[in-house]
């Protein structure tokens, strides 16, 4: 458990540096005007805007935090860094704050759980309560997800994959809280997670298969090809066709991981906000009641999706590592 906790802290710091660096500075564009006739032809532009919910503002990243009983708090701004023709803004944002909060939360939870479990074992008793639940969850992911898919001697990957699961889960759940923000609803965050997974997968292949074996996963030729001039021509043609396919396959795996997590966590929040917006649009108690019931149902589904997406990301990463470790 101690090694697990250390891995959480390291991964949180790495993602804290990578995710904001993936976002370039863009000029603030004014919010598009709302057509008054979309709500009421007799209303002014200002009155029409009051009946709208700015969905982009609620799901997007920003340089401010909304804190209960305090209000809007501006985050510090740093001067952008210019690298060649690229301008990079490393100023902290709302999603970065909640991402680091998730890393700190998971680290604290498991450090305290490890201490509780150690005390229970010292008394010769099984762990109970919240610590027992955390241990059971970690053991399930390790025994049923990580080890069967990574393959023999895959214990060394368990700390990283367990960290991945609980870190993503914490970010997903924090986004369901009032005034919270879903860091995994930011493509820069999910891309950073996917890049780290890609590096782990490819480095694993290099270490397990060796340089020659790893190159075969890129320059793939099936066994049993004929020799001679005809065989040489066939090999060249196969390499010309299969090499781009293998490279696309390697890049498609992290791309699918990043987009799947981002899209699933964003779509649910958009749907909830759209349903709530119907209340302000129609100004009807009946519509408001129906929209509230539907939004509540979607939020319950979002809770399930938060666990599911953390599980799927961890499962697929385990499968990709296991496939890379096998000789092709």
Could you explain how this protein is built, in words?
With 328 residues, this protein is mainly α. The chain has one domain. The chain is 69% helix and 4% strand. The protein has helices at 2-21, 45-50, 55-59, 94-122, 129-150, 158-174, 187-216, 228-282, 285-325; strands at 64-67, 71-74, 81-83, 86-88. The strands form 2 sheets. It has a two-stranded antiparallel ribbon. It has a two-stranded antiparallel sheet with strand order 3-4. A hairpin with a 2-residue loop joins β3 (81-83) and β4. The chain is globular and about 80 Å long.
Question: What is the structure about, briefly put?
Answer:
The chain has helices at 2-21, 45-50, 55-59, 94-122, 129-150, 158-174, 187-216, 228-282, 285-325; strands spanning 64-67, 71-74, 81-83, 86-88. The chain has 328 residues and is mainly alpha-helical.
The overall average pLDDT, rounded, is 83
What is the CA–CA distance across the termini? Answer: 34 Å
Count of distinct structural domains: 1
SS strand fraction:
under 5%
The radius of gyration computed from the alpha-carbon positions, rounded to a whole number of angstroms, is: 25 Å
Which secondary-structure class do the elements indicate?
mainly alpha
Secondary structure: helix percent:
55-70%
Strands of the widest sheet, in order across it, are 1-2
Spans with pLDDT under 50 lasting ≥5 residues? 1-10, 14-48
Helix and strand element order: HHHEEEEHHHHHH
Total helical segments: 9
